[in-house]
Amino acid sequence: MKHSIRFKITFFLTTMVILTIFLTWFINKTFLSDFYIHSKVDNLDDVYQKVLSIYSKSDKEYNLSDENTELMEQLAYNYDVDVYVYNSYQGMVYPEADNIGLSEKIRMQDTEMFIFGFSNDALGQRDILKQASNYIIYRIHDYRTEASFIDMVGIIGNENAESSSENTKDYSAQDNSMYGKEDYNIVLLRTNFDSIEESAAVANQFLAYVGIAAVILGSIAMFLFSKKFTKPILDLAGIAKSMTDLNFEVKYTVETKDEIGKLGTCINTLSDKLESTIAELKQANNELMKDIQKKTEIDEMRKEFLSNVSHELKTPISLIQGYAEGLKENINEDEESRDFYCEVIMDEANKMNQMVKKLLNLNELEFGNNQINFERFDIVSIIRTVLNSTEILFKQKEVTLHFDQEEPVYVWADEYLVEQVVTNYISNALNHVSDNKIIEIKLIPRENSVRIAVFNTGENIPEEDLDKIWIKFYKVDKARTREYGGSGIGLSIVKAILKSHNQECGVINRPVGVEFWFELATR
Q: Is 235 part of any domain?
């Protein structure tokens, strides 16, 4: 599992998410507070400029109109800033004293003492954050409330610009000597510094929770999503495994045009080429083995062939000759007898014709003149085809057929020749079936091949004849063989076909019948 691509992808992406979240958390914890302060300083500068704008539009010398007061309140609310305006003679002029609560009055009194130059133990040392020609921004701590603030103290009034500059310089020097100058207005803008640090802490805590959730959910999502990449790879591995077993029917369904899609296309092409190459190799190997055997057997086969042909043709020729002489000498003058003589002659001539054809076919197989075309096909389909063509014979003889194979079984062989073998076995079973009149066809899987067995109820073959029935013209029961028109060549053709495929065939006596079998390669 730990070596799988799916695990590696999930582990890598999860690690990247953790590092990204940790880096974000570290940057927030280290720099967010300073950035927040910088942002607040800029906000205070904006508020200060807007306060100046409001006072520049005011018709009153110190106090604001209702409209401008409302603007000041909106400004304070929008920027989350407390706004206070002082006059050097009148004290606080905005907001009015009646609009300030008791605790806020106490706090502002402490601030006023500090602004106008009086010592105040409740307030700590100022840390200057920014100063300009007409204002100064600093951070200060209130020991009484244990709260920190960011304050801006600035000058209002263009008519005192020159003195304002001097006052700011004096103020920046921290001599607290503004008190006693010419008539001027002072604006105090205050924001809570503790809320800044609290917001940063809350943001970091929230980021930690979100990060944990993101890592867990992200890991699960990545593990599931990575299956989209690994599944095609596993499918291709399965196809490659099937190819090692010489099964080229399985193909990869190309659904994408990415690298995996290209690999799937290449695997399919490789499968097709391997299948055709293996077929060619099997055919070449089969030809080589036949050539080796052919040279050692050819002389003996010729002698045996001539001897058997002479013997088999002797009987039908004698019959034809005898009945032809009878016709010539008019032994029987009635028309019915002459017709019988003619039918015998025609029947024997037809048997001779069929025997000659089979002999020629057998001769081609044994001498290797018949080209074996190896291909991969379904043997079940071939059996079904032969059974369909002989269905009428099964009905005429009232034979019960047992063949339950439904799934296809693919073999490597010459389809045309294998059909002859199947036809011969089934015809042989129909000619010899008796007793319960049952024919059963079975497909028995083996290691690299499949055995096709055809069983029929009836008399057993004598043990001494089991090995001889494959010999050309050999007949166990000559009378019965001649009855159904047999020539003793059919099983020899079966043997020759299987030998040309380098496969085996045979016969087994069962308690209630006989079973003929042959094998074909599946790989």
A: no
What's the token pair of residue 201? 């802490």
47 vs 146, more confident: 47
- Which is nearest to 324 in space by CA: 312, 336, 316, 313? 316
Cis peptide before 95 (omega within 30 of 0): yes
Q: Are 515 and 426 in contact (CB under 8 A)?
A: no
Sheet holding 127-131, edge to edge: 91-94, 82-87, 185-192, 147-156, 135-142, 127-131
Name the residue with higher pLDDT: 296 or 485.
296
Q: Hey, what's the torsion of the CAs at 295, 300, 306, 310, to 10 degrees?
A: -160
Whole-angstrom distance, CA of residue 301 vs CA of residue 207: 93
Q: Please state, in angstroms and rounded to a whole number, the distance separating the CA atoms of residues 64 and 70.
A: 9
Q: Are residues 252 and 380 in the same domain?
A: no
In the chain, the number of structural domains is 3
Percent of the chain exceeding pLDDT 90 equals: 14
Q: Examine the domain organization and report whether 459 and 518 are in the same domain.
A: yes
In a domain, 70, yes or no: yes
User: d(Cα 226, Cα 236) in Å, to the nearest integer?
Assistant: 16
Cα distance between residue 429 and residue 440, in whole Å: 9
The range of the structural domain enclosing residue 173 comes to 5-214
Query: Which range, 30-39, 260-269, 345-354, 430-439, has the best average confidence (pLDDT)?
Result: 430-439
Place of tokens 């083996």: 446
- Report if residue 322 sits inside a domain: no
Tell me, yes or no, whether 477 lies in a domain.
yes
Using CB atoms within 10 Å of the CB of residue 191, give its burial: 0 to 12 exposed, 13 to 18 middle, 19+ buried.
Answer: buried
Shared domain for 168 and 253, answered yes or no, is no
Residues 169 and 251 in one domain: no
Q: Is the whole-model pTM more than 0.70?
A: no
Q: What is the pLDDT of residue 511?
A: 92
Q: Is it the case that residue 226 has pLDDT exceeding 80?
A: no
Contact yes or no for 488/480 (Cβ under 8 A) = no
Same domain, yes or no, for 252 and 111?
no
Contact 126, 138 (CB under 8 A): yes
CATH number of the domain enclosing 522: 3.30.565.10
Q: If you average pLDDT over residues 185-192, what whole number do you get?
A: 82
Residue with tokens 């690690």: 15
